[in-house]
Design brief:
globular, 2 helices, Alpha-Beta Plaits, 33% strand, four-stranded antiparallel β-sheet
């Protein structure tokens, strides 16, 4: 399955809020054939990065939209090196 890194540019953000949103993603991800693997938060810059296995970028964004409404601003296909 392809691996994607998405980027959310949200402005001020707290790591605890991102952890809650990630838990919501994980709770419904199986419905969409998606596996959110990890995430990173830059509170000072208001950035969130999510690493996800998904069939396509749309499936990954659908999980975000359905679970908490915060869709990615960018999604990049990546591979581990």
């Amino acid at each position: 399955m392809p691996l994607y890194m998405d980027v959310h540019r949200v402005g001020p953000v707290k790591a605890d809020d991102v952890a809650e949103a990630h838990a919501k993603d994980v709770a419904i991800q199986d419905q969409y054939g998606v596996n959110y693997l990890n995430y990173w938060v830059d509170e000072s810059e208001g950035l969130i990065f999510c690493l996800v296995d998904a069939l396509d970028p749309e499936a990954a964004n659908t999980v975000h939209k359905q679970s908490h409404g915060l869709v990615a601003d960018e999604i990049h296909q990546v591979r581990q090196g």
